[in-house]
Amino acid sequence: MILKRIAAAAVDALFPRICPVCNEIIPYYGLDICPGCEHKLTYVCGRICAKCGKPVDDDEVYCPDCARGRHVYDEGCAALIYDENMSKSIYRFKYNGKREFASFYGRVIEERLEERIRNWNIDGMIPVPVHKSRLKKRGYNQAALIAKQISKRLDIPVYDDIVIRTHATGAQKELGALERQNNLKKAFKVTRNVVKLESVLIVDDIYTTGATVDAVADCLKGAGVKRVFFVSLCIGRGN
Ligand SMILES: [Zn+2]
Ligand SMILES: [Zn+2]
Question: Which residues, by Cβ under 5 Å, contact ligand 2, an ion?
Answer without folding.
Answer: 49, 51-52, 54, 63, 66
